[in-house]
Amino acid sequence: RALECAESLGLKNEQLEIEEAIGNAALASGDTLRATVHFDRALELANNPRDRARIQCQAASSLVTNGDHRGLDYVRAALLVLDPETDPMATANALAIEGRFQHLAGQQYEAIALLERAASLATPEAEKEITPFGAATVSTIFGFLAGAYQHLGRFTDGNEWAWRAVEFGKMHDVLLAQALGYEFLGENTVNAGDWQKALEYAACEREIAQRLHSRERLSWTYLVTSLSYMASGDLELAEREIREGKALAESIGERRLTLLLTGFLAIMLADLGRIDEALRIAWENYHSAEALGLVYSRNEGRRSLAHVFFKQGELDETLRLCDEIRELLSEGKSRITHLWLGPLHIEALFRAGRREEASQRLAEYEALVSDCQAPCRERDVVRLKKLLDGN
């Protein structure tokens, strides 16, 4: 209503402020699509370079969720204006967003370097004075670092940053920091193999998400609960969590999460023997992931489809997709995908009679597992060695 009044009166400055405020309100509630629309409108009204830099970073925050590269252009333009000495927190925020884009592109070491630089700027400022903007910036930096280490398979290292987010949030009563911390604690813990503890972390985040009124924060809890119930063998409950989480993610435009949950749904249905349904969903997910274009999403789209083909006995198609994933992933990119893919690829090679290649891949996988912090994957190595030895 305020915007309608400002527009009817021709008050451009007030329109800018209100468009920005609506964007921030939408972003806080997890409605990233709506947030982007209002930030773009605010940018059309902004002429002052510092105003534009601030709004560009806000727009980038709404776009980074789905890896939309317009956001990367926005944040790089903002960094040309921002000064780390006179405005360290705003610069840290911009660097963190750029780091998140690198993370989504699979460039984890580059992401960590940007994020740790952002942390070195933001943390001293937050110790001097806590502002809402500073609190949100520090929260996301700690959370994003936890995610970057997660994709390198360094789950314990990631948890250190996740706990820093939780502790920062509790010390300064910042719910966002606590929610982000518990999200990554849940994801790291379930990837490391402790699904019961992961469910506890997911429950903590859900309680905080309700207090935040954030559908975005709530939606990501479903990834942890779904994986945890799949790991526990409770596939009925896992399917319910996947479908509820998928519906919520779709409603707020969270495409990355939608794709992840859809891929796991296809995998689970294949494990239940519902091959036709699994194959249809896996193909739809594959095409959607290709359209989004993010490295991790594209690989997960292939991995879930490969899993369904394997369950169907289509070894050639399984191996073709596994090879494509290996080509897409280079050194330093999402080792977490290799941790998930390794057992499937090795077993498919073995079943196809390509035992020498299977042994070579197993040796590579064992070296990867020993360099990561995923004790549950050590059991996969033992199982695969027995398979290849004929025991």
* Number of strand segments: 0
Query: Radius of gyration, rounded?
Result: 22 Å
Unreliable runs: none
Beta-strand percentage? under 5%
Largest sheet: none
Total DSSP helices: 20
**Structural category:** mainly alpha
Q: Could you give the order of the helices and strands?
A: HHHHHHHHHHHHHHHHHHHH
What is the CA–CA distance across the termini?
A: 72 Å
Please estimate the helix content. Answer: over 70%
Arithmetic mean of pLDDT: 93
Shape: elongated
Q: How is this fold's topology laid out?
A:
Elements: H1 2-9, H2 12-29, H3 32-45, H4 49-64, H5 69-79, H6 88-104, H7 108-128, H8 132-151, H9 155-172, H10 175-192, H11 195-212, H12 215-232, H13 235-251, H14 255-271, H15 275-292, H16 295-312, H17 315-328, H18 335-351, H19 355-371, H20 376-389
Short summary of the structure?
The protein is an all-alpha fold and 391 residues long. 84% of the residues lie in helices and 0% in strands. The longest helix is centred in the N-terminal third of the chain and has 21 residues.
Description:
By secondary structure, the chain is mainly alpha-helical. Helix content is 84%, strand content 0%. It is built from 20 helices and no strands. It has helices at residues 2-9, 12-29, 32-45, 49-64, 69-79, 88-104, 108-128, 132-151, 155-172, 175-192, 195-212, 215-232, 235-251, 255-271, 275-292, 295-312, 315-328, 335-351, 355-371, 376-389. It starts with a helix and ends with a helix. The model has no long low-confidence stretch (mean pLDDT 93).
Name the descriptors:
84% helix; mainly alpha; 391 residues; 20 helices
